[in-house]
Amino acid sequence: xxxxxxxxxxxxxxxxxxxxxxxxxxxxxxxxxxxxxxxxxxxxxxxxxxxxxxxxxxxxxxxxxxxxxxxxxxxxxxxxxxxxxxxxxxxxxxxxxxxxxxxxxxxxxxxxxxxxxxxxxxxxxxxxxxxxxxxxxxxxxxxxxxxxxxxx
Length: 152
What we know:
Blueprint: E1 3-6, H1 10-21, H2 24-27, H3 31-39, E2 42-46, E3 51-53, E4 61-67, E5 70-76, E6 80-87, E7 92-93, H4 95-100, E8 107-110, E9 114-120, H5 121-130, H6 132-151
Antiparallel strand pairs: 1-2, 2-9, 3-8, 4-7, 4-9, 5-6, 5-8
Helix pairs in contact: 1-3, 5-6
């Protein structure tokens, strides 16, 4: 994976806070919790065509798309891939591994040059354990997406 790390600058912080307040899963967090979350994140740039995560691999990262688009697909049967979604700015992925402790359930590739905020599993898990409403909201997102993947 070819990535270029960059610091989260003031403009990114404002973008992050505004976007997170508009996403149901994160809207349950206080400003303090959102600031704790952003303080533990790093921003990474991915070139078009880069695979961010592979279905079936172990993982410990949670992603929030800042700009660009990513393609989410699942392998069905032997070699057939099924496109499940296209995610853009403000969308997130990677919660299934963090919520269920399983392997990656989909492959995610950058459709365009893409910047994502990335959070390590221990930081996500800490917030997940401390905030019951956030935990239940993320579990609901996970369950919904798991069902969508089964139907794909």
